[in-house]
């Protein structure tokens, strides 16, 4: 919703085209306020409707919603069409379409032919015509909002799809506990051992703020790393973690270099956790850990039949057809990260020389498939280890399309860095990756870790710090 504060006066929100193209359901998201759509917005919607891109699909969906609303108007468009029935009671305002030419005087330096300026002119005219209420332009275009502010108009971003206002509040998946934690929650402490792991049952006030599969750690004399496996009212069960930083527990030759990497490997190597999200800056080891765990569980433990890796080819969802070759070959230029990580994973000391290395690489390659996102609709993956790389560039809707491809026995791992978004109109708060981290938080078959430390090299770490 573009305005969260409820006031008695009904506001009038003028929608820019990019808001409809970003979220066709925005028509129903303004609660008791009215929505105004200029004719130029409908014209621009029409120019975007052809094609198979996400934008074209959204344009067609927005047109269908508008058709549904207008068909209920029974010819009474001028006074506004109630949105109550079309939105299934989600919105109580009215939809108003521009039914006549609206003229407003804009500064001479702003060319009238430009669509943005025509919309600004309409906002100016509506403000003059209805001085008793707020007329607010809603646009995803920053420059458009700046222009509106320069003309003394109210303008807002479209906030409804933002999961979080501040990504600093995003769930990290980890929590540090201190000695006082045990004093507060350890009154009826029970402890037992099973399958080489230690379990603690705690009861106390802090349990309500814990999440399933959250990873807890304690510094100091009593070092502890554990996972929340069960929450029942005010009691919870904690399970100690496997130490993947020790060479004897290496995963395809890889060991955890820091606490978060150890947490990540515990989630990735747990077949009970079907959905894992790893966030982190470049060089924190997201892809390497995910691939190492995937190879170990596919080739050694045989839990999955193959690894499928996909990533967003920005521009998102555009045709990859101009590159020569099959789908797999077309995707390879985008998959440099996969090749680099396979080089690291294939660097074994006792591999029988170059021949052994080549044979291992061929075996690994035969089990890793590279797929394009464009052809994911309608597919079902059975017993696969699905890696979605660069997931921060996906919208929540695209993310849903991908994750719902998972059939029985499939594990989905989403990797990304929300400070590296390349898609227009997506922000850290509205990225599909932020959305799934927030929505899956606390489900007993999903886990999330934000990796903090870069582990590439001293050069890369220093560059990240000073540049």
From TrEMBL:
InterPro entries: P-loop_NTPase (IPR027417), PhoH (IPR003714), PhoH2-like (IPR051451), PIN-like_dom_sf (IPR029060), PIN_dom (IPR002716)
Keywords: ATP-binding, Nucleotide-binding
Annotated PIN domain residues: 11-146
Superkingdom of the organism of origin: Bacteria
CDD domains xrefs: PIN_VapC_PhoHL-ATPase (cd09883)
Family listed: Belongs to the PhoH family. In the N-terminal section; belongs to the PINc/VapC protein family.
Protein name, per record: PhoH family protein
Species assigned in the record: Vogesella aquatica
